[in-house]
C-alpha cells in the first residue's frame, strides 16, 4: 500500500510540474506574436505603426528588434516622407547604397529642423544665440544654402 501511495504522489507532482511548464510555454507563445506569426503578417502589423511607435517597438525585445531592424520595407515609407523635405540628401544616400533604415537615421532629425526653417519657424531670430541649441542639427553647406534661399524669398 505504501508503494502505491508514493507512486501516486510522485505521479501527481510530475503531472503538476509538466502542466506548469506547458502552461508557461503557451503563455510565452501567446505574448510574442513575432515568434508565432509568419514574417509577412508580422511585418504587416509593424507597417501600421508610425515612425516613433516603430522605434519604440524595436526596443520591446530581441525578437521584435531583429524583425524591425532587418526589414528594410518598414523603413521605406517614413524615409520617403523625409524625402519631401530632404530630397538631395535622401537621393545621395540611396546612390551610396545605404539601407532605408540607415538613410532615415541619417536624415530624420535634419529633416525636422530643415522643415521648421523652411516653414518660417526661425525667420524672426536675430542672432545665433537666439537659436534653440537642443533641436539644432548639423547641416551641410548645401542645406544651409537652401534655407538661406528660402529666407531671402520671404
UniProtKB/TrEMBL annotation:
InterPro entries: F-box-like_dom_sf (IPR036047), F-box_dom (IPR001810). Its main location: cytoplasm. GO terms for biological process: protein ubiquitination; SCF-dependent proteasomal ubiquitin-dependent protein catabolic process. Keywords: Cytoplasm, Ubl conjugation pathway. Pathway: Protein modification; protein ubiquitination. Pfam families: F-box-like (PF12937). Residues 31-78 form the F-box domain. Gene3D superfamilies: 1.20.1280.50. It is found in: Cytoplasm. It comes from the Eukaryota. GO terms for cellular component: cytoplasm; SCF ubiquitin ligase complex. Substrate recognition component of a SCF (SKP1-CUL1-F-box protein) E3 ubiquitin-protein ligase complex which mediates the ubiquitination and subsequent proteasomal degradation of target proteins and plays a role in several biological processes such as cell cycle, cell proliferation, or maintenance of chromosome stability. Ubiquitinates mTORC1-bound TTI1 and TELO2 when they are phosphorylated by CK2 following growth factor deprivation, leading to their degradation. In contrast, does not mediate ubiquitination of TTI1 and TELO2 when they are part of the mTORC2 complex. Part of the SCF (SKP1-CUL1-F-box) E3 ubiquitin-protein ligase complex SCF(FBXO9) composed of CUL1, SKP1, RBX1 and FBXO9. Interacts with TTI1 and TELO2; when TTI1 and TELO2 are phosphorylated by CK2. PANTHER family: F-BOX ONLY PROTEIN 48 (PTHR12874:SF9), F-BOX ONLY PROTEIN 48-RELATED (PTHR12874). This is F-box only protein. The lineage of its organism: Eukaryota, Metazoa, Chordata, Craniata, Vertebrata.
Amino acid at each position: 500500500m505504501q508503494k502505491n501511495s508514493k507512486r501516486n504522489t510522485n505521479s501527481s507532482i510530475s503531472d503538476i510540474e509538466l502542466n506548469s511548464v506547458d502552461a508557461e510555454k503557451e503563455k510565452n507563445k501567446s505574448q510574442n506574436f513575432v515568434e508565432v506569426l509568419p514574417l509577412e503578417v508580422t511585418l504587416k502589423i509593424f507597417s501600421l505603426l508610425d515612425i516613433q511607435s516603430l522605434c519604440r517597438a524595436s526596443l520591446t525585445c530581441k525578437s521584435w528588434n531583429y524583425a524591425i531592424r532587418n526589414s528594410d520595407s518598414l523603413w521605406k515609407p517614413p524615409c520617403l516622407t523625409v524625402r519631401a523635405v530632404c530630397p538631395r540628401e535622401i537621393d545621395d544616400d540611396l546612390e551610396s547604397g545605404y539601407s532605408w533604415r540607415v538613410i532615415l537615421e541619417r536624415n530624420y532629425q535634419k529633416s525636422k529642423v530643415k522643415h521648421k526653417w523652411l516653414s518660417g519657424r526661425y525667420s524672426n531670430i536675430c542672432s545665433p544665440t537666439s537659436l534653440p541649441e537642443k533641436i539644432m542639427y548639423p547641416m551641410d553647406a548645401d542645406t544651409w544654402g537652401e534655407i538661406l534661399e528660402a529666407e531671402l524669398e520671404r
